[in-house]
Amino acid sequence: MTSPQRGDSIASPAPTSATALGHRDTHPRCFALVPCAGVGARAGAGGPKQYASLGGRALVLWTLEALQRVPELAGTLVVLARDDRQFAALAAEGDAEAAGSCWTACVGGQTRADTVAAGLVDLLARGAHDDDWVLVHDAARCLVRPESIRRLIDDCRDDAVGGLLALPVADTLKRAAPDDAPDGGVRVSATVPRDAMWSAQTPQMFRIGMLREALRRGLARKDLGITDEASAIEAMGHAPRLVRGDFDNLKVTWPEDFALAERLLRTRDHPHPHPHPHANSNTKAPG
Predict the structure, then answer these.
(1) pLDDT of residue 91
(2) Taking the chain, what is the end-to-end CA distance rounded to the nearest angstrom?
(3) DSSP letter at 170?
(4) According to the model, what pLDDT value does residue 94 have?
(5) I need a surface site. Which of 15, 20, 82, 213 has the fewest CB within 10 A?
(6) How far apart are CA 12 and CA 5, in angstroms?
(7) What pLDDT was estimated at residue 95?
(8) CA 9 to CA 149: how far, in whole Å?
(9) Distance between CA atoms of residues 113 and 120, nearest Å
(10) Alpha helix ranges (H) inside 126-196
């Protein structure tokens, strides 16, 4: 039996369950899936924001390093755009431990839902099972804390549905409406009660089979906007579990977010040139 190779892609012959992950024990495994096929237009980074420099390395490498530090993960799949060449270049650089220790698949689609759906097919081709868990995590949430991911796994692994990291909304919410003024601004149309409102984060953790079916149904409905994995699960009538996340697990979206993320990274206690003891633990083929 052979282990998955570093940086292998679905563009090569898809491995069977016997050659990819080997036999598992009776417990479902956990995999991470990172959609990394977006263009990041809002970030103003001059290209895909996941490859923009942050603290001296590509943003996505910080994300993958955090996932490496979660020993419960049996593997991490990065789903890339079909014409992506930048990720392979990262894996060839000196500071490339995170990029070289995960699987890749150049099967990204037009939307996040398309990309995640294609990634699930790739995971199954590598030997994952429908009842295994997948933790879908934004490439741009580079500040996620490994201990928060482990808390999500602990809280959801015995849950019938799954769940996601999220935070209660603290700010007053305003619904906007277009202004009739010549400057084309917006005005408040209503104040939205924030009671029971939470802001969704990632990872979002669901069974591979359930999520695959939810995305299949969601993508078939033109009236349903699937903005995250939880919304697809909700459309099937399920109620995902909310697990409290962290305030600094922000999604780098706007140009000013890069400066904030870099300041927050400086407060962390793990300089990236030194791998964590659990680094690479999620690349081994489970027995």
Answers:
(1) 77
(2) 10
(3) -
(4) 60
(5) 82
(6) 11
(7) 64
(8) 26
(9) 11
(10) 146-156
- Sequence length of the chain is 287
Amino acid identity, residue 24? R
Give the integer Cα–Cα distance in Å for 257 and 52: 12
**In terms of Cα–Cα distance, which of 269, 251, 270 is closest to 260?**
251
Over the chain (287 residues), what is each successive 10-residue block's mean pLDDT?
Answer: 36 36 78 87 62 91 95 97 91 74 94 97 98 97 97 98 97 92 86 95 98 97 91 97 97 91 84 39 39
Look at the block and give the residue holding tokens 């997948």.
Answer: 134
Nearest-CA neighbor of 56 among 221, 269, 265, 277?
Answer: 265
Q: Is 73 left (phi over 0), alpha (psi -120 to 50) or beta?
A: beta
For residue 203, cis peptide bond before it (omega within 30 degrees of 0) = yes
Both tokens assigned to 193: 């009660």
Buried b (16+ CB within 10 A) or exposed e, 121-159: ebbbbbbbeeebbbbbbbbbbbbbbbebbebbbebbeee
Domain ranges of the chain: 17-283
Distance CA 220, CA 7 (A): 32
The domain defined by 17-283 folds into Spore Coat Polysaccharide Biosynthesis Protein SpsA; Chain A (3.90.550)
DSSP class of residue 127 equals T
Q: Supply 282's token pair.
A: 């999620």
**Distance (Å, rounded) from C-alpha 99 to C-alpha 140?**
15
Q: What is the pLDDT of residue 100?
A: 81
Cα dist from 146 to 68, 90, 152, whole Å: 8, 22, 10
